[in-house]
Amino acid sequence: MYRHRVKKAPSPVFGDTLEAMQYTINEQRKLVDTDGKPYTFDLKAKNRSYQEAHGRALTEAIMKVIIEQLEKECDIVRQKVPFWIKDDDNTSPQANILVSTDLKTCDRVLVLIPNTMEILGSWSRRLLCNENVDGGSMLSVVKQARSEGYGVLILNPNAHWFVDGKASVDIPSKVDVPMIPKLNSPEEHVDYVLSTLVPEMASKKLFFIAHKYGAHALLHTLFKQFDMFKNRVGGIALIEGVHSIDSYPDLSFQKWWSLNAAAFIQSGEEEKGQVEFRVHSGCNCYKTGTQQFDFAILDGLPIIFEFFDVRKDRDNTFSTYKDLLLPRNERDPTTVVITIQDEVLDDSYAAYAAEEEAKEKSQMVETANNEEVEELDMGRLKIAEGAKP
């Protein structure tokens, strides 16, 4: 008896440029077809695998254009990783990161870390294809950063495999496809690149923007390499981060994190601008006023650059600011909840702290409305004057 073999359809092949795929970027920086119609994700909707493959190919074609712009307009160059790969070696498993030409000499550096499955230079495929190519990619962020004097480092934590002579974020269907050294996971890539490049930088003012899982990978590295970073980080912005501080119980690190990191999260429009402390994040969370998937990127970036601007001239030596009780600053979300204590202030607080810790799980931390600062020892937190509930 013979069993009927179902033949798999061959993988669809698309062009590798926007022109070949019959798309272009219009004056509003939106993706449109040759008839001027906006891109839609409903292409051959009954065939989801085709739809996904087309979307990935289109994203790669867009990013070729964007990276060329970054190179021409922002003095950005490609850097091979692992760092031992020579410039003329195109056959060894490898990927690229993007760096500004002044990365090692500039006063301030901005590091960008995307979510999982995003390719180099992209924040969100959805925003890139459906909304605006500048906002969906990192182009608008890099342009603003360069105009404000930042050096730029763009990481590539998702290109794990070397397929047909190039890095790939997609799990390969072929067998025996080599993984790229130092790129086995986002955590490994972020740790490898930062621990290699940061010691070579003159800058003592490092700033980070990380999206979703990128926030977790960054937190992992900052904790692991805390001695390297604790005196040279100016600010950390986490957009819809999936990180959790619970796995990093060191109180000194948690205090440093709470003083330097701010999360930018989805919320109702009526909540826009409100700030609350969330225990699992270990930091203050700024509500962006949008509930649409990935739109916190677009809505959060203006306040993120304001947040960084407030801190651009700060002495980032941890010991100089770790015990300061800063006044509320609307442009700096970290000043609502000030700190996590790194030592016990008073033994008499012990029973009170245990009781308040239980309450934390079911309600937001409420702060004093008057001018006097109320100190609460809830997981070693201090709440600054004027915080919104």
From TrEMBL:
GO molecular function: siRNA binding
Matching InterPro entries: AB_hydrolase_fold, Arb2, Arb2_dom
TM region(s), chain numbering: none
Protein name, UniProt field: Arb2 domain-containing protein
Pfam families assigned: Arb2
GO annotation terms (biological process): regulatory ncRNA-mediated heterochromatin formation
Domain Arb2: 14-269
GO cellular component: nucleus
